[in-house]
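Module 6 notes. Inverse folding takes a fixed backbone as the condition and produces residue identities as the prediction. Think of it as a translation problem where the source language is geometry and the target language is the twenty amino acids. Below is one complete input and output pair. Work through it position by position during the lab.
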């Protein structure tokens, strides 16, 4: 059994595998590298088999999404640590060592992540994780280095390793035993925010999560689902509500859920006035899905911890004009 298994979940990402898989192999000495494929139709598996015979592949019989795909694949892998890595991430020399060493020496930590920067603008933090994730008073995710859509330049301002609330699914190292103990990813999320939900449950099991900025990777972002996709809008709005319904203590849920629903409808109206009709409809569809699955989601409230204390990002960002984590 390898100490670390680097597991890349792929869906029609052959072009990214061609570009980034050689870097993963070169810089992951001692780790097992596994590509789990969500029933791609672009020849991804054939490409790996023809060019990287030493790489283990796991072929799934359908597209289970990010959440379900990893759940299915990780059942078939034995390692002390899982390093979950998006196919559109460029890793760097020695990227794994600090994360392995940290988890080895800190048994009360369940997961960690490196600094994540934008591949196409390498002076900037990347949207999906930046230098560690948090959630605000109403459950909106933000990062050290990214608030809403504003990403900061990396000038070394966040080079201190700190505890975070959630680790990015683009590049997350998690204890394998804890991953299964926490129930894995919620497959009903399909994609987006499932890692925040998992990290919330990891906290509920009394483990901490850390960002280690002394190691970094570069993420393209939107490699599987573009930012402009209405389906992505649907997943983000639906899963944002799922996240609260599953994890908030009841009293806080009764206060915060109506506020989030109201703000979602404000967003839907703005989409409509901006001419983004498909995105407006995606928000409405997300809410109908939450209503239809409300009973099922409520039954998942097995692990609940106190909600993290945080500021209200809408107030900080839009009224106080604080667009940097360091200004909060």
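Target side of the pair, the amino acids:
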């Amino acid at each position: 059994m390898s100490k670390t298994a680097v597991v890349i979940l792929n869906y029609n990402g052959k072009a990214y595998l061609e570009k980034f898989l050689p870097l993963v192999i070169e810089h992951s000495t001692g780790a097992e590298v596994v590509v789990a494929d969500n029933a791609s139709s672009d020849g991804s598996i054939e490409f790996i088999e023809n060019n990287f015979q030493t790489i283990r592949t796991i072929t799934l019989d359908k597209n289970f999404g990010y959440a379900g795909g990893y759940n299915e694949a990780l059942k078939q892998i034995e390692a002390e640590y899982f390093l979950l890595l998006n196919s559109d991430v460029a890793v760097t020399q020695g990227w794994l060592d600090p994360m392995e060493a940290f988890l080895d020496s800190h048994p009360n930590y369940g997961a960690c992540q490196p600094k994540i920067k934008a591949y196409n603008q390498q002076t900037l933090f990347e949207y999906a994780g930046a230098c560690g994730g948090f959630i605000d008073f109403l459950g909106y995710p933000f990062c050290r280095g990214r608030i809403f859509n504003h990403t900061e330049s990396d000038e070394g301002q966040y080079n201190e390793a700190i505890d975070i609330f959630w680790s990015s699914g683009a590049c997350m190292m998690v204890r394998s035993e804890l991953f299964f103990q926490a129930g894995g990813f919620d497959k009903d999320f399909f994609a987006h925010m499932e890692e925040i939900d998992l990290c919330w449950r990891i906290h509920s099991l009394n483990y901490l999560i850390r960002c280690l900025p002394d190691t970094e990777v570069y993420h393209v972002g939107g490699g599987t689902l573009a930012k402009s996709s209405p389906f992505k809008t649907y997943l983000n709005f639906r899963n944002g509500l799922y996240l609260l319904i599953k994890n908030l203590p009841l009293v806080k849920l009764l206060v915060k859920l109506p506020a989030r629903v109201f703000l979602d409808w404000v967003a839907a109206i703005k989409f409509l006035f901006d001419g983004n009709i498909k995105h407006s409809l995606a928000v409405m569809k997300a809410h109908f899905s939450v209503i239809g699955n409300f009973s099922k989601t409520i039954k998942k409230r097995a692990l609940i911890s106190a909600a993290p204390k945080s500021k209200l990002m809408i107030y900080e960002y839009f009224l106080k004009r604080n667009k940097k984590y360091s200004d909060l």
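Reference fact for the lab report: The first strand starts at residue 2 and ends at 10.
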